[in-house]
């Protein structure tokens, strides 16, 4: 395989469709017949191999990650802008039809695998924040299948209080842990729960569905800012994770597509 084809292979696997089309249009020196054959081979290679792809910094506005199947491999690894947190807010939107527990957000450090993890327990109809290996449950949630849900979770180490907002509705504040910050080598995963630092995935805890608009802040977001996020208004983007400038790596079969919207 010559240098142009090798570059094409790398690009097909690890970049967006728009960038790929722009790059292909500039390859006037490659014969069309050869390029078409190469693309056919690369399409097969993508579907079969699906290796880890360092996507780099991308604006994912209007897009979503699709986790199309139950697996203990496929996930997205996010790169945070900092490593130490005494306060946290994480917001995301998800769409699924799972009738089992599954992880919505998983942050581990080298010392604690569930340093900040959000899990939905369908059996007990609970959303469960895990922080510094401690857990609280919020039951009685109206978390319907096959529709988008916005979930925001806040925690402050000084008070030890955690709160969850589902589709703009706040929970009570509960004590979980105080006086201890999240610190050390941080790994953030979408699509799987980390039972070890960066791994230990369980297929029965994997996420299957769509996920979008993932943001993380190193402070507790105000109720007004959370409502702006829920309503998709002009809110302050995350200063740790920002969906409009996201640094991520896709491992195995996770797709990026335009977010579907209702037609009126």
From TrEMBL:
Gene3D superfamilies: 2.60.120.200. It is found in: Secreted. Keywords: Calcium, Disulfide bond, Metal-binding, Secreted, Signal. It comes from the Eukaryota. The lineage of its organism: Eukaryota, Metazoa, Chordata, Craniata, Vertebrata. Its cofactor is Ca(2+). Residues 61-263 form the Pentraxin (PTX) domain. This is Serum amyloid P-component-like isoform X1. PROSITE patterns: PTX_2. GO terms for molecular function: metal ion binding. InterPro entries: ConA-like_dom_sf, Pentraxin_domain, PTX_dom. The gene is LOC114843123. Belongs to the pentraxin family. GO terms for cellular component: extracellular region.
């Amino acid at each position: 395989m010559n240098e142009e084809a090798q570059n094409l292979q790398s690009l097909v696997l690890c970049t967006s469709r728009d960038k790929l089309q722009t790059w292909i249009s500039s390859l006037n020196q490659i014969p069309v017949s050869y390029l078409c054959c190469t693309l056919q081979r690369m399409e097969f290679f993508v579907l079969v191999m699906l290796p880890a792809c360092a996507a780099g910094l991308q604006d994912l506005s209007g897009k979503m990650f699709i986790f199309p199947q139950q697996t203990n491999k496929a996930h997205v690894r996010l790169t945070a802008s900092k490593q130490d947190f005494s306060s946290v807010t994480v917001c995301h939107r998800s769409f699924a039809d799972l009738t089992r527990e599954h992880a919505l957000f998983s942050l581990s450090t080298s010392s604690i695998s569930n340093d900040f993890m959000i899990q939905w327990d369908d059996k007990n109809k609970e959303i469960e924040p895990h922080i510094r290996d401690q857990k609280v449950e919020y039951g009685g949630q109206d978390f319907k299948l096959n529709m988008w849900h916005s979930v925001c979770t806040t925690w402050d180490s000084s008070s030890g209080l955690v709160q969850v907002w589902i589709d703009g509705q706040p929970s009570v504040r509960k004590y979980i842990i105080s006086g201890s910050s999240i610190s050390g080598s941080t790994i953030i995963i979408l699509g799987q729960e980390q039972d070890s630092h960066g791994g230990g995935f369980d297929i029965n805890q994997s996420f299957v569905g769509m996920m979008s608009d993932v943001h993380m802040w190193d402070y507790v977001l105000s109720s007004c800012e959370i409502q702006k996020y829920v309503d998709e208004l002009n809110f302050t983007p995350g200063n740790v994770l920002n969906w409009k400038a996201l640094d991520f790596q896709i491992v195995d079969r996770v797709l990026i597509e335009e977010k579907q919207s209702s037609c009126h």
